[in-house]
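Entry:
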Amino acid sequence: MRIMNEILEFNKDFVEHKEYEKYKTTKFPDKRLVILSCMDTRLSDMLQRALNLRNGDAKIIKNAGGMLTHPFGGIMRSIIVAIYELNANEVCIIGHHGCGMGSINPVNTIEKMKANGVQREVLSTLEYSGVDLERWLHGFDNVEESVRGSVDIVRNHPLIPKNIPVHGLVIDPETGKLDLVVDGYQALEQA
């Protein structure tokens, strides 16, 4: 069976048996928290359980590496919307040990693009337009430094209220152990 057919078949049963009722919540995060973390499949359930979060407790944003790469990109926009429109009043940036973005090889990724039919002309056009694919695809060398960098982008963003604590953590995707990298409360006290 194809994956989408399997999903739709399951979904029909899910709705018919009202399985959704146990997940009901509002669009506002109960713990008034917004989290940026990695899309790693090991964190799908582990992250929420390790943080003692239930459905509806936090707004969770995921991307490759759990990192902010642009202060006016989609991730930052989502954090700002969570604060101003959804009542979040704390931000957590959570990286993880063994992250694929810590070992990604942009040159190999570009070669895979070519092998999958992306034309050299497309890559040349991007390069001519100022897009440095190798730089754009590069992850990070150190997960703690990556978390600190993302925390700094949020904390120093001109649209983020100065009273919002921005925390940085690293999670072990095997055990769920959290290491505090940046204490957002302490940073506010020192400001």
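DSSP finds eight helices and five strands in the chain.
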